[in-house]
Amino acid sequence: MGRQPCCDKVGLKKGPWTAEEDKKLINFILTNGQCCWRAVPKLAGLLRCGKSCRLRWTNYLRPDLKRGLLSEFEEKMVIDLHAQLGNRWSKIASRLPGRTDNEIKNHWNTHIKKKLRKMGIDPLTHKPLSTAEEHHRPQQQDQKKQDDKTMEPETSSSLNSTMSKPKEEEDHPMVKDVDINGFCTDEVPLMEPHETLVPNCAPSTSSSSPSSSSCHSSMFLEELQQFPGFECPFDDFNIWDLLINEESDKGIPLDHSLSSPLMGFDQGSLPYELF
DNA sequence: AATAGCAGCAACCGCTATCGA
DNA sequence: ATCGATAGCGGTTGCTGCTAT
To answer: What is the pLDDT of residue A130?
Structure first.
């Protein structure tokens, strides 16, 4: 009958992942591919539940992820798709290669909502906010003050399409798999190699925040270097080259065809850095 | 310089659809 | 056909760093 219970949560670690845990998970998935998540923590030597491992992998460790803020184009895509699909973040994410549902959801809640409100658009309905509503939402007035500091004028024009967009979500809240731009929402768009290209984390000029996610990966790599026995073979290395080389040295075949994180790419000749 | 408040993001929680015995 | 486990999804929380006072 059925399957084994997912995981008893007794003794399992929670909270932020350490670089060591990340490395274990990356190594395991590179070696075995994405198989039964329930078995992953045990096999990888992690005190996490499978769910946590899956989340960490899909939202953070996957090599095909883009890091950093969404571009203006991506933002516009999110808004347009949200107008049609609602809060179906995974569907929206499937249209934006290298972006995760969690990332898009966060960006929506922290950036896009504010921008739309500032433009007088209700982020829920994508309809213009009435002036009456505005007066009854003092927190939005406060919000505007904040937004005024960061709002870029050209962004406003890029969002105009949401004003005139047909609102399928309102008329058909459960509308599924709307065809947009010629492909089904269930299809994950093929990623072009250039789409996975992430600039090296050079000393940041665009962001003053040290916690900027675009730099997070290099911080992770720096942490990795501190592990006993962990040697960086390159001056300017990337973790995926390293891990791939590591596995190759052991003679461990990588399952590229099924669920390898580098699925679809010729790993021996990647012309770009994954991180 | 200290600190309170805010913003951003990673991770967790709980629900549901799907799958397998 | 049924029941229970799993994977995936969306909502929410909590931590960390930044900014304003």
So the answer is: 66
Å between A146 CA and B15 C1'?
35
* Bridge partners, residue A180, by sequence: A183
Structural domains in chain A plus CATH codes = 9-63 (1.10.10.60), 67-126 (1.10.10.60)
Does residue A35 have a pLDDT over 80? no
Residue with CA nearest to C16's C1' atom: A211
Q: What is the pLDDT of residues A89-101, one digit of tens each?
A: 888 888 888 888 8
The nucleotide closest to A100 (CA, C1' atoms): C9
What SS3 class is residue A5? coil
Rounded CA-CA distance A266/A150 in Å is 41
Chain B: nucleotides below 7 Å from protein CB are 6-14, 20-21
User: What span, in angstroms and rounded, lies between the C-alpha atoms of A23 and A16?
Assistant: 14
Pairwise CA distance, residues A164 & A128, whole Å: 10
Q: Has residue A202 got a pLDDT over 60?
A: no
Residue closest to sugar C1' of B19 by CA: A2
Say how far apart CA A149 and CA A238 lie, in whole Å. 36
